[in-house]
Design a protein that fits this description.
The chain is mainly α. The longest helix has about 90 residues, at about 55-140. Helix content is about 85%, strand content about 0%. The two termini are about 40 Å apart. Keywords: Coiled coil.
């Protein structure tokens, strides 16, 4: 409560409705106002009027100063923690978006790999069917010249079949390596997100 002389129409000290509103500077201002009021009392009633009061006022002001100092430190800490939490939340959102993007890219890679695998398997199936038809035609042929020609065709088709199979294996190995790399990257991002969640 502000300290005012009786009969004084106005009060020079500012009222503080909440303790957290008081800073160290405010305490010094309050002490200055109290000092002025004490001087008025001394002028009117003599030093004896404030002799017993002053030690109590000084103790109260020192206590208020300590509380204000502690309050300022706590307010600073709260602001720093709030800023840190905001940063962590922002990082969490960013990492979640990265994770969703990586998962989407991984799904696209897997779908692309499946489609290529289906296409290559279909190609191999067609070549195998062609080889089967050529083999049946060869068995029906009795002419040596026809037999030689058919044999050459089958050999060429088999060579194409082997080349396609090798290409298929190469594509599958490449896609598998890409998927494993994406899995490792996704696992790393997931671990980072879990670490952020732990700090929060």
């Amino acid at each position: 409560m502000p300290f005012c002389l009786r009969g004084n129409a106005t009060c020079k000290m500012e009222e503080y409705s909440v303790a957290s509103d008081v800073s160290v500077v405010d305490v010094y201002d309050i002490a200055s106002e109290i000092g002025k009021e004490c001087e008025k009392l001394i002028d009117l009633f003599g030093v004896e009027s404030v002799t017993n009061l002053m030690p109590k006022v000084i103790n109260a002001l020192e206590l208020l100063e300590n509380l204000a100092t502690k309050n300022e430190r706590e307010n600073t800490m709260v602001q720093e923690l709030s800023a840190k939490i905001s940063q962590l939340e922002s990082d969490k959102i960013g990492k979640a978006e990265d994770r969703q993007r990586f998962e989407k890219e991984l799904e696209q890679i897997e779908e692309h790999w499946r489609q290529e695998s289906r296409d290559l398997v279909a190609m191999v199936t067609r070549l195998q069917e062609e080889n089967r038809r050529l083999a049946e035609a060869l068995q029906e042929s009795r002419s040596d010249s026809q037999y030689s020609s058919k044999q050459t065709t089958i050999t060429a088709s088999q060579e194409v079949d082997v080349a396609v199979l090798q290409h298929l294996r190469s594509m599958i190995d490449k896609q598998r390596d890409q998927i494993r790399a994406r899995d490792r990257e996704l696992s790393q991002k997931t671990a980072e997100i879990e670490n952020v969640n732990w700090y929060i």
